[in-house]
Design a protein that fits this description.
Number of domains: 1
Number of strands: 0
Shape: globular
Strand content: under 5%
Structural class: mainly alpha
Number of helices: 7
Largest sheet: none
Radius of gyration: 22 Å
Length: 204
């Protein structure tokens, strides 16, 4: 993959770069104001994975004092694929909070960053568990996830080949491509074309 020294993907086709810029702007808008209050933090998720006590969880949560999710995008200390804690141990509040930062980082680097698997709604015993983590996402936020998966599939296929893009495509097909990208308008009834109920006939 062609990258600059900043780790960003270089030399993409013009139409892909245009979609990248539009998608980044839409993620910023759709997740603006999203916070983590009352939810599980990233450090707390690690403690949960290690069976920490409630006191340990509180201490870990107190360590995560970033001003907002945007500050995590370029934070090298935020390791999204560390193998301990992470997405599986977040609740719906925490998942929605960390998701935009992870998507933006993926878009900038062209890497998975550990998020693709957790956007896959496999038909297994964990299906409801995964879906519950997305329960707070609004329609606009879900549209961003759909576009994100589509974009990452295109970029991965362009750089590495179609096989490497299969994971993104699978996540898209299992659920996210069902999200409508435009509002569905209710057709208006044409004047004089309404249905009139037939009168009941009594007797012959």
């Amino acid at each position: 993959m062609a990258r600059s020294r900043t780790g960003k993907v270089d030399h993409l086709p013009g139409f892909v770069e245009a979609e990248r810029d539009a998608l980044l702007a839409d993620i910023e808008a759709a997740f603006a104001g999203v916070g983590r209050e009352g939810g599980i933090s990233w450090s707390e998720a690690e403690v949960l994975d290690m069976y920490g006590t409630a006191e340990d969880q509180a201490k870990a949560r107190a360590q995560d004092r970033e001003p907002g999710w945007r500050s995590l995008v370029d934070d090298s200390k935020w390791r999204t694929g560390c193998g301990v804690g992470g997405w599986s141990f977040l609740d719906a509040v925490g998942f929605r909070y960390y998701l935009p930062a992870a998507m933006i980082r993926c878009i900038r680097t062209g890497n998975d960053e550990g998020i693709e698997y957790h956007l896959r709604l496999d038909d297994d015993k964990f299906r409801d568990f995964r879906a519950d983590k997305w329960s707070l996402l609004t329609l606009d936020q879900r549209r961003c996830v759909r576009r994100f998966l589509e974009y990452m599939g295109v970029v991965t296929a362009y750089v590495y080949g179609g096989f490497d893009a299969s994971g993104w495509q699978q996540s898209l097909e299992l659920y996210w491509d069902q999200i409508p990208m435009e509002e569905v308008a209710i057709p208006k009834k044409e004047k004089g074309k309404g249905h009139r109920p037939k009168k009941e006939r009594h007797g012959p």
